Predict the 3D structure of the following.
Amino acid sequence: MNLQGLIVCRNLLDTEIFDGAADKFETASHLVERAELLGLSGNLYRAYLIYLLAHEPNLISTSIEMRGGKIGESLREIFVHDVEILLPILRGELWSDLKLLNLYKPTAATADESFNELLRRLENLIDAEEIADAFIEHWRRFGYGDIATYRAFRWDAAEKNIVGIRHFETIRLDDLIGYAHQKELLTGNTTAFVSGKPANNVLLVGTRGTGKSSGVKALVNEYYSQGLRLVQLTKPQLKYLPDLMETLRKFLSKRFIIFLDDLSFEESEAEYKYLKSAIEGGVESRPENVLIYATSNRRHLIRETWRDRSEDHDELYRDDSANETISLSDRFGLIIHYYAPTQAEYLEIIRSMLKRRGVELDAETLRLEGLRWEMSHSGRNGRTAQQFVNHYLGQR
């Protein structure tokens, strides 16, 4: 094949498998290596080409991100031109007679959900325009590279970029027992956000172990296919919020939740001012594809003492000090409160968790064992219930 006519996909020529320099057996060796590394199967020439198009940036995929999913008709026509050149590979016609590379089964198949969905969509397509549109729709929904592969990211201050989290929790909203009203508020705001409607930054506040952090993580698993991603930021990294937001601004076809877990500040800590400015009040506007979700055990986030309200407080204008204390939490448009469960709710959480694992206890045994565990641990909450379930199942 002569791939010199490629235009927007010309970066394929930088790959040894497509540059034409290697002989057939050397190319086969490279393909098998990639198949085992990436979990590719079937016709390896076709599978690896699809993988590169889906993951490596090109003018089409990057334009879609920067333009919020839009692409010019001329650019689309050029991409169709490239797809026509690549058709023999995309149809699985190359090396179709070589069984070892045509029906390859890797040791471990890829678990990349977006890539597998793209493979299924392309399976019966043979027309260049249909194949091109399938890739374009894939980039609109999932993006390219790590943005398509990962659901959650962390901020790398040294590289000034986001890094995918390979082993992200698979928790879903249905796994969280109770707190129906809180979940309704959380999903309602997030649904509006991924739909491009106005939505608020969210503060989840209340008793420890009630599922605040788990609720935010579950959102990403629920809305991943609709373009939602999560970026975790630690308190010492708050000074990098402007850099992070500028990075996320490049991916306008996606929606990002910046996740600040277990957030609170002492009076002497100045990091909260970076957060105040990023949410509201800074010169540079927050990107429309970014919201901040934070969890905390403190309603006002900044530690406040009785001395702060005392007549003996040495600040001249006491109201100014009080306003400064609550000004951060006030910038979260939606504040969701989580309270400790009642005894009946706590036992129901345990019962539901055990039932999902195929175990049912009679009501009296459940009550005695569950309450005994609660009294010897950190109180009545969802985390304590999960720890009891782990212990009970481990001792069976």
Q: What stands out?
A: Residues 316-324 have pLDDT under 50 and may be disordered.
